[in-house]
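Page 42, continued from yesterday. The earlier attempt failed because a stray header line got pasted into the input along with the sequence. Redoing it now with the clean sequence only.
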Amino acid sequence: MVKSASADPTEFSPHTPAGNLPTTLDSKLIGLAAGRSIGALATLKRDGRPHLSAVNFTLSPATAIARISVSDDRVIVNNMRRDPRVSIFVASVDGWTYAVLEGTVELSPVALAPDDDTVEELVDVFRAIRGEDQPDWDDFRLAMVAERRLVVRLRVETAYGLTGPDYAISA
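This time it went through. Structure tokens are written below.
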């Protein structure tokens, strides 16, 4: 069955307390997306056409906030600075169920020092996506600064997709 839901955006914070998931978002769609870590991020080019990029992301089901680590020099960052409306498409393993998360992004500052707030959040994002520790956190932190990384935070305002027992095959 096709499901669609939207939520009014509230004050944006990557640290929204657990349990503040907008009640109008379908928990099955959020659960599907939260169970995956690779998706297609759609940003808008100057001419209005979508620009798609494969990304690793993490989604908190409690807050409906997705986070992505990106380098500042990427086209998608320029697109998001110009127009912060984005979508992330996530499919089940079999491809027959999917979720599309839509909303407005906030960009963190670019990582400037190995111990700044952005690098701390990038460490959190890495751990959430990979579920493991980095073998050398000092090198990781230096790389985040050298690559001019930042965190994209997407508060999910709308979710739609295809869920249901007729389509789902367990992963």
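Notes: The longest helix spans residues 117-130.
Reminder to self: strip header lines before submitting.
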